[in-house]
Amino acid sequence: MFAEPRDDITRAELAEWQARRLAHLLTEIVPANRFYARKFHRLDDFSRLPFTTKAELLEHQAQHPPYGDILTYPLERYNRLHQTSGTAGKPLRWLDTPQSWSRLLDCWQLMLRMVGVTPADRLFFPFSFGPFLGFWTAFEAASRMGCLCLPGGGLSSSARLRFLLDNDATVVLCTPTYALRLAEVAQSEGIDLVGSSVRKVIVAGEPGGSIPATRGRIERAWGARVFDHTGMTETGPLGIECIEHPGGLHLLETECLVEAIDPATTLPVSPGTEGELVLTTFDRPGSPLIRYRTGDRVRVDPRPCPCGRALVRLDGGIRGRVDDMIVIRGNNVHPEALQAILLHQPEVCEYRIEVDRTQALPVLRIEVEPHPHAAADALAERIESAVRTELLFRAEVRTVPPGTLPRFEMKSRRTVQKNDDGTASEPRKS
């Protein structure tokens, strides 16, 4: 077993560390892993190894149910099963051995220490413990650190808030959307979150933690510092925001090899240029990922971080999905750009985006649910003006009565497409 995850490593040390880890990984999985044994014809040039995609993994699981042929070891060696949320289709199942599971907990413990969590903290997890990896790893890692861990499954939002207050939670872990939803419920019930014991809110699962308008709204509502985090069921927990430099994510490069590519050409992009995040994970040889195209849009920060860590930093965190681009009359826009405009307006309580492709030219409509007593007409006009000024196209904005739009505990689905054949696509995460 290699040394524990580190955040105090130099770039020179890291290069040697990663070379050893990669060599060990490839030796471990080839030829035992049938998926990669077929995929790799040569191993002497890592940069020429083919990419791995989620669609490819899902296809193999469908062909070889229930887990596909990506397992390196006999099934008896695995003791954990988790799966993705399935927002883009069928969920992807992922297995861990006791050794790889322990390493995932090591990663979470390191990241919790990086944001200043100590054994004296009380961590609240306001979600149901389903088959998604992040809940279990964060909860078990914090418990292993000696923190008091408070599970919030099976409770209403009101009950979760009371549970949080009764137990003096100091750290809350949830999606950005649900942090705002809890704040909305607290306001309606006269609960003072700013005066509560919560001092940190760790968010993940969707963009927002590194979007200034979204994180600012959460911080004001809770009176607490927001920390962004990233991880996937397939990759495990790998990124956290440092205390010294908000609005970005450090990736644990002792646990993965990081690349950023042009999603169209698959060629590397230079630091400071937006590209697609590609990851190779070192510590899950039983279910390995080699050059995995995550589909996440990122921009590697070329500047040294004030925290002093040499670990790569993603400026702006996860900026969205490569495939979530909306094209409106020649203008390209990602839902996160609209979120930044909408949540900059303090009167906006919730919103939904509709892309109508039933007409000759696509139309973008935004439904906005204002806070009670807000001037709805003036709000719609301000949003229309902001979209024209900042994104250079016109959107149809209308307000809806309070309580009209859906609320989300997990990943939000605020974007829906009305297709030219008259059908409607499932709402997409945003």
Describe the structure.
- The structure is a single chain.
- The chain has ten helices and 20 strands.
- With 430 residues, the chain is α/β, with parallel strands linked by helices.
- The strands form five sheets. An eight-stranded mixed β-sheet has the order 4-3-5-6-7-8-9-13. A five-stranded mixed β-sheet has the order 18-17-16-19-20.
- The protein is globular.
Question: SSE layout and pairings?
Answer:
Layout: H1 11-29, H2 34-39, H3 54-63, E1 80-83, E2 93-96, H4 98-114, E3 122-125, H5 133-145, E4 148-151, H6 157-166, E5 171-174, H7 176-188, E6 200-203, H8 212-222, E7 225-232, E8 236-240, E9 248-251, E10 256-261, E11 274-281, E12 292-299, E13 313-315, E14 326-328, E15 331-333, H9 335-342, E16 348-356, E17 363-370, H10 376-391, E18 396-399, E19 413-418, E20 428-429
Parallel strand pairs: 3-4, 3-5, 5-6, 6-7, 16-19, 17-18
Antiparallel strand pairs: 1-2, 7-8, 8-9, 9-13, 10-11, 11-12, 14-15, 16-17, 19-20
Helix pairs in contact: 4-5, 7-8, 9-10
Précis, in short:
By secondary structure, this protein is α/β, with parallel strands linked by helices.
Total helical elements:
10
The portion of residues assigned to helices is 25-40%
Going by CATH, the architecture of the largest domain would be 3-Layer(aba) Sandwich
Question: Taking strands numbered 1, 2, ... along the chain, how are they ordered across the largest sheet?
Answer: 4-3-5-6-7-8-9-13
**Overall form:** globular
Largest sheet, strands/sense/barrel: 8 strands, mixed
DSSP strand tally = 20
**Whole-number average pLDDT?**
91
* CATH class category name of the largest domain: Alpha Beta
